[in-house]
Amino acid sequence: MKIADIVNSTSNAVVAVNRSGIIVYCNRQVEKILGAPSSLILSRHVKDYFPTTGLLEVLENGRSQLGCRLSLNNSMYLSNHNPVVVDGKIVGAVAVFQDVTEIQNTIDELTTRSEQIKELQEFLANILELSSDGIIVVNRDYKITLTNQAFASFFNKKVDEIIGLHIKEVYGNPIFPQAMETGEAEYGYVTTLNGQEIIANRMPIMKNGEIIGALGMVVFKKISDLHTLSEKIHNLRSQVDFYRNELERERKSRFSFDQIIGQNPAFIALKETAARVAKSQSTVLLRGESGTGKELFARAIYTESSRNRGPFVRVNCAAVPENLLESELFGYKEGAFTGAKKGGQLGKFELADKGVIFLDEIGDMSLHMQAKLLRVLQEREIERLGDTMSRRVDVRVIAATNRNLEEMIINKEFREDLYYRINVITLTIPPLRNRIDDLGLLLDFFISQFNKRFGKRVGGIEPDVRVILQNHRWPGNIRELENVVERAFNIMDGDKILKEHLPLYLQSAQKHKWLGRSGMHHLVEEIEREAIIDTLESCKGNKNQAAILLGISRAGLYKKIKRYKING
Question: CA 412, 417, 420, 423: dihedral to nearest 10 degrees?
């Protein structure tokens, strides 16, 4: 067996140089490291392959170098450099390299983890110190492994003074470690800690299904702290109850029959009837022209009913697109259609459970939706879109319309069976022109409201303005009157509403007298057309704002613009 065979079999790389630093020997491991055959390596200067080697220094001073680190081709090596001495003279040097890349990677990883653990420990320590609760942890041997200053202060100690101690070395009769024996957590128990009565929690600490320790937490350092907190909670509850009652009282005062303005005898009789109807659970149909106050009546009925602690949910059947109305009313199941929310969505009927749902403009509902609504009213059950399960709902229905349902039934536009289902109790709200004696009261009410909103002190209207308003037919009813007053507040400076503060169609009301010979229908259309034009001008073409001021839906405004051929 040759010595070369032995050296080639080792896992270490071996390189030898002569006195001039020329490589005179290398084994197979060197060839692997450098990726070159020995024929290219031999006779080359050692610096050509190992530029940072210390072999040349060994040749100069004859001192061995042990444990030198060398980075080569993305690998890490440890090398020993020794002189070759013959007859007392240095004739060369030899280096032995050992690949320690994996060991170095492991060391680097352990260093990184050690730093991360240290940061985590510091972070946890900071959290513990920020807590005002005393916290302590013991292991299975009852030795303290974790605590904070809030706990150590009970014994006038520092945290590092009690870490590692047996819990009984700190105080005589600890209770919280019993959680290791019972395996059960206990919250809010009363005990003493160094002679001080406290309220604490105790919990076992689990790992892989086994109990490895116990956690104790001082929740209240004094029993009196609990009494103080209890008193605060009681006071807060009292305040919440007070404000809730105030809100309830304010809501009832806003939407009660007393807040519906009118002294007209027929109107008073209507309010009295509605107040009696409110006490029942029957479906109510509110009829009347647009702007007469159907929603006010609906809210007043809700307020005076036994359901006033439940929700009041309003749905404008004319404003919701037909393809969305079903999901709006009955909700939908997850995946019912493209874009459906994850988890599905409740419909208005479910949201109104134990309360009232107000179906405004029910006459604008399609026949398809009418059939689905009829089933809900008959069965008192809804079925979400995309679902097969029925859900019970306890809802009182109040419907409203300004359309002639009887005529729609004849024209096959409204289901007769649905008509009789919603027409249990009908309340017809008169238009403003039929209770024009209430105009003064309504004016005073709106002026008072807008004085608060605009911060003004408007005292009333000029006599000529009152004459104009008294003679107007009010096709938009109360809503139109409110809009007229609000418009005046936006452009006036004084304390009286003058003629020039009125919309153009009211200022030029005299010119419409001759239209009476063409019939009321044409007069109303002309006034409505001018009202839309004037409102659009005041809103600078903003159709959303104009629709709000006119008291109609955006879709309704577009229909009228098209019908009356209004530009813009």
Answer: -70
